[in-house]
Specification:
Layout: H1 4-16, H2 20-27, H3 31-39, H4 46-56, H5 60-63, H6 73-78, H7 89-107, H8 110-132, H9 147-169, H10 190-196, H11 201-220
Helix pairs in contact: 2-3, 7-11, 8-9
Length: 225
Amino acid sequence: MNCDFPRILTLLRKERGISQKEAAGSLGISQALLSHYEKGIRECGLDFLVRVSDFYGVSTDYLLGRSPHRPGLSALEEGTIPGESPGSQRQAILHSVQLLFELLRACGNRGLLRDASRYLMLALYQLFHILHQANPQNPPGLFSLSPALGCQYAQGVMHLCEGRLNAVCRGERGQGLEPIADMDTLLLSADSLAAEYPQHAPALLQLIRQAEEQLALCSTGAEEP
């Protein structure tokens, strides 16, 4: 399979708090065979991979170490919102994030991947922190930082991440910056994106168009129709 699968398979079982015997019984295999899978001694078939995906509620991409997102894009898209069109902003965002991480993995720059992941994580952290304030009955213990401090700290770290991302992409050296080894992996035109990422590129192009429409409205002071 690959070197990530045994590690992730073991991690998911331990997170669930079950023994190899219990997991093997639920997955329809012997404990000895599961032990071999977890140690990387044997490779499983596709049918077992799907069973593991269903049992632990994660995507096959996550099981294979190809995605850091456990539910997977398709699972996120199953819960459609009434009246939401296939080309909605939500789906454009989901596909665009998937494409972004595909690009980051392709260029092989650990610094870019780390800072981009942290930047997006903190943006979502801020958004949830703001929403959490809406209902006074929400338990304050969910966060260790107050909304003011949490969001301000997050913005500061995001600025640092943004600075490093810009510096690396401009080819700057030093300060612990890792240069991009193969710039061809970041050859980004509408045609190249459509060719390399046909499933996600249309959504990214849609997101760019929608974002710039919103920015144009903000710059003129006009309201969204």
